[in-house]
Design goal:
This protein has 205 residues and is an alpha+beta fold. It has 3 helices and 14 strands.
Length: 205
């Protein structure tokens, strides 16, 4: 499947984010450079991404790509100490604090192997490699999630913009944002943080 490029919209948005987010950039952060808080506040003042206990309906996929159907699974509710055990400091800042990794800093290129991108926090299947495309933005980009059940869309008005935040449906971890400048067939661009994802190569059944 040929790789597709989006228009220069993504690059223009990067410049807009840089201008709009100057007041909320934090120096000396986990990346050793300027860190952008996803909720529009300084990292030190950012609140936790909260998870409400209970069950959630998720579309479950095996590592060989088989769809195991819609299943009721418990929400993953952990405290900071447990999340720190599961995640690197940089991944914690993204998934649990809503930060954004610097563009072109992660493994954003489409993998050579077939496989599934899972949540780095709870292993929920999020994207299939067949829907990834080269957006030119420096972040992994997909034109649709593997299942609408597995992601949450939230209204985000930080930095004076109206965006759609994307979170993992099981652990409420911040993944990135969705924009309406992607390729066919959906016209959508799910712009994700590399550190919020874990790629699992497809294994034979």
């Amino acid at each position: 499947m040929p790789r597709k490029q989006v228009t220069d919209t993504g690059r223009r948005q990067l410049l807009q984010w840089g201008a709009a987010g100057v007041a909320t950039l934090v120096t000396g952060g986990l990346f050793g450079s300027l860190i952008l808080a996803g909720d529009g506040t300084a990292v030190a003042a950012a609140g936790l991404i909260q998870t409400t206990p209970g069950n959630v309906a998720l579309q479950v996929y095996a590592d060989d790509g088989r769809d195991l159907g819609l299943q009721q699974l418990p929400k993953l509710v952990l405290g900071d100490a447990e999340w720190h055990k599961r995640l690197s400091p940089a991944a914690f800042a993204i998934l649990r604090r809503g930060n954004t990794e610097p563009a072109f800093s992660g493994a954003h290129e489409r993998p050579a192997a077939r496989g599934i991108f899972r949540c780095a926090g709870c292993a929920t299947a999020l994207y299939d490699d067949a829907t990834e495309f080269d957006s030119g933005t420096g972040w992994p980009s997909f034109w649709q999630p593997i299942s609408a059940h597995n992601v949450i869309e939230l209204r985000d008005t930080s930095f004076g913009m109206l965006r759609t935040e994307i979170r993992c449906a099981r652990c409420d971890g911040h993944l990135g944002h969705m924009f309406h400048d992607g390729p066919a067939p959906t016209g959508l661009r799910y712009c994700m943080n590399s550190l919020a994802l874990r790629f699992v190569p497809r294994r034979a059944a």
